[in-house]
Write a structure and sequence with these properties.
single chain; 18% strand; Glutaredoxin; alpha/beta
Length: 162
């Protein structure tokens, strides 16, 4: 029997690196899943106003938007059109996430009565533990979370698709 060749060593090294990568990924997933995140609560003081809100008396719907994501922007526009015909539509707004520097006031082509906010402190990701762009948060007038739904779902009706 001959000693392992360089091809065998390369295959062994590749297998070891693959196993190490999977172990690191598993550890990162476990740490994230084991971390206790805050329940989302809307407090304006935790965010930077990019576009001031109107007076909001009822529900406030805030969409987590990355300005580089066309799907996020399309979701906000579709959501605005879906709720516009309501007698008492919720106040729609956006939380601009994963932007390291202060962005300009976002122009999404729709009114944002709940304002546009920059998450400069990464509350959405680090404190709330969120990761999915386009997620819509429904908050009551006191800032308590009513629901959080993924992009493409009308927040107050899980069965309604946009």
């Amino acid at each position: 029997m001959s000693a392992p060749g360089s091809g065998d060593r390369a295959a062994l090294l590749a297998a070891a690196l693959t196993a190490a990568a999977f172990a690191a990924l598993g550890l990162a997933w476990w740490r994230d899943a084991a971390h206790r995140y805050e329940e989302p609560v809307w407090r304006e003081s935790r965010f930077v106003a990019l576009a001031p809100p109107a007076e909001v008396a009822g529900e406030r719907w805030l969409v987590a938007v990355n300005l580089g994501c066309p799907h996020c922007k399309a979701h906000v526009r579709a959501l605005a059109h879906r709720i516009a015909a309501r007698a008492q539509p919720p106040a729609l707004g956006v939380i601009v996430v994963d932007q390291p520097t202060r962005p300009a006031r976002p122009d999404l082509g729709v009114l944002l009565p709940a304002g546009a906010w920059w998450d400069s402190a990464e509350v959405w990701r680090e404190a709330w533990g969120r990761r999915i762009y386009g997620e819509t948060f429904r908050f009551d007038a006191r800032g308590r979370l009513l629901s959080a739904t993924p992009a493409g779902t009308l927040p107050d009706s899980i069965r309604s698709r946009m």
